[in-house]
């Protein structure tokens, strides 16, 4: 007896499904069958007829379909599915003709799953390469040879895997594997690579934050040292009257830096005098806000501390009035010769610079500087104010008569007046002359000409266009020195 391969389990189930179907007879068995243990029929050798061949072909087709369902996770051999298929075929015999179509559709589904698995593998490998490359970059600094070797090996392995994946897809080897499991493993690997990339990025950001923190600490320490040195220099300037201008300067070597140093010292003295003035007004029981409103009516300061700017504005307006004229008054008395006037102004600057203001007034009570102090004090300190500050007008009358009281308040005033007069003398020594300027209320703010003392005004009112702030008042005037602009200080609405 010729040896024949045993009938597969699927073919047995197929014959079992066809059993009892109308038109199917038990003799329609496989053309060549043998007795073998477990066979559902007693098989005899028959001659191959057309009906026998058709029936065998049909059984094999059903067996293939059942095999496909089994490979994709469907239990094809259990009794429940077999009975269900048998009932459907009994009710609708036309299903036999569509079995081959169903088999083609199943093959298409497997091909589609194979494509999805292929692209999942590609994305997984690309993500892994990206994560490994990030590791490679991170390992450069600080240098880590082991991590570099590991990342390099991972990149090479993934490139090889991409090549193998390509050949597997082209040869349709992927269709013979468990596609759902393969896709799931690829997706897990992709997520792991993405997480690793984010971890590396987070580590880099942490390193950058630490570097910035270290830089910030260094800059803070440096700032503290600079401020300490600045305070020491300022203290030395106050004690010696040093302006940062050498005593051997001449008309030929005057520089903008000389005027800038003198200007900064004058502003400091103005602020110091205003603090003393406000302290005296508060001690007298005056309302500072009401006094500020009297000086600049209709202006609302943003903070109570800003009231000092109003008083600074008032002091500067009185003290700098007539700055461009030789004696702070409109006169041509000293305009006989420009070169002589420049030389005279510079000599006066050098003479006054090296002395205390009170000593200079004692030695030269009829000097131009003495006249300037007398006129500016009488304009700046109103009799009513002095009466509130000191309880009498004795000091005011002394100044008015040409004497100079030795009080601390007047001493602070003449010290401030000295530095403004020095700035005035130095301005007249330049060629071309230094010019002073200030802005009126409502002027458009310009960063070229102005410095804002209240930057929060840009955002204080939501109804105000922050791109077009306006000047409320000028606090300290600005200057133009040989083409250089020293910005005026302004308070914005």
Descriptive notes:
With 493 residues, the chain is mainly alpha-helical. Helix content is 60%, strand content 5%. It is built from 15 helices and six strands. It has helices at residues 9-18, 50-71, 79-91, 99-138, 145-170, 179-240, 256-283, 288-295, 307-319, 338-353, 357-363, 368-380, 383-390, 394-400, 408-429, and strands spanning 435-437, 450-452, 471-476, 478-481, 484-486, 488-492. The strands form two sheets. The protein has a three-stranded antiparallel sheet, with helices on one face. A three-stranded mixed sheet has the order 2-6-3. α4 (99-138) packs parallel to α6, α7 crosses α9 and α7 runs antiparallel to α15 (408-429). It is elongated and about 130 Å long. The N and C termini lie far apart (115 Å). The model is unreliable at 1-11, 13-52 and 65-78 (pLDDT under 50).
Descriptive keywords:
mainly alpha; 493 residues; single chain; 5% strand; disordered N terminus; three-stranded mixed sheet; three-stranded antiparallel sheet; 60% helix
């Amino acid at each position: 007896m010729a040896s024949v391969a045993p009938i597969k389990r699927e073919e047995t189930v197929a014959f079992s499904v066809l059993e009892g179907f109308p038109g199917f007879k038990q003799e329609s068995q496989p053309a060549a069958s043998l007795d073998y243990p477990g066979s559902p029929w007693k098989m005899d050798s028959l001659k191959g007829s057309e009906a026998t061949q058709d029936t065998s072909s049909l059984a094999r087709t059903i067996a293939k379909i059942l095999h496909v369902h089994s490979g994709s996770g469907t239990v094809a051999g259990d009794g429940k599915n077999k009975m269900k298929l048998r009932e459907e075929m009994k009710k609708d015999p036309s299903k036999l003709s569509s079995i081959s179509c169903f088999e083609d559709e199943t093959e298409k589904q497997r091909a589609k799953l194979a494509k999805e698995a292929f692209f999942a593998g590609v994305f997984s490998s690309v993500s892994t390469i990206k994560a490994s490359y990030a590791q490679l970059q991170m390992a450069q600094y600080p240098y880590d040879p082991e991590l570099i070797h590991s990342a390099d090996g991972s990149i090479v392995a993934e490139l090889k895997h991409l090549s193998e994946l390509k050949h597997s897809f082209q040869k349709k080897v992927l269709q013979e594997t468990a596609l759902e499991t393969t896709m799931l493993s690829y997706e897990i690997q992709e997520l792991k690579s993405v997480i690793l990339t984010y971890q590396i990025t987070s580590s880099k950001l942490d390193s950058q934050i630490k570097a910035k923190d270290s830089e910030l600490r260094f800059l803070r320490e440096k700032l503290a040292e600079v401020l300490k040195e600045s305070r020491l220099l300022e203290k030395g300037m106050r004690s010696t009257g040093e302006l940062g201008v050498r005593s051997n300067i001449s008309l030929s070597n005057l520089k903008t830096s000389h005027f800038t140093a003198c200007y900064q010292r004058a502003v400091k003295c103005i602020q110091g005098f205003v603090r003393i003035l406000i302290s005296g007004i508060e001690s007298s029981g005056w309302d500072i806000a009401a006094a500020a409103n009297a000086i600049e009516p209709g202006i609302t300061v943003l903070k109570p501390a800003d009231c000092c700017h109003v008083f600074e504005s008032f002091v500067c307006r009185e003290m700098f009035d007539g700055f461009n004229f030789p004696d702070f008054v409109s006169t041509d008395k000293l305009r006989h010769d420009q070169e002589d006037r420049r030389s005279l102004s510079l000599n006066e600057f050098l003479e006054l610079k090296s002395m205390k203001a009170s000593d200079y007034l004692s030695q030269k009570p009829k000097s131009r500087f003495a006249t300037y102090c007398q006129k500016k004090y009488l304009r700046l300190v109103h009799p009513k104010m002095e009466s509130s500050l000191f309880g009498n007008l004795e000091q005011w009358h002394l100044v008015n008569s040409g004497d100079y009281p030795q009080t601390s308040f007047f001493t602070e005033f003449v010290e401030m007046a000295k530095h403004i007069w020095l700035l005035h003398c130095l301005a007249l020594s330049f060629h071309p002359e230094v010019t002073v300027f200030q802005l009126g209320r409502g002027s458009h703010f310009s960063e070229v000409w102005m410095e804002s003392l209240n930057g929060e005004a840009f955002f204080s009112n939501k109804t105000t266009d922050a791109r077009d702030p306006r000047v409320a008042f000028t606090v300290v005037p600005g200057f133009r020195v040989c083409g250089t602009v020293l910005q005026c200080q302004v308070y914005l609405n």
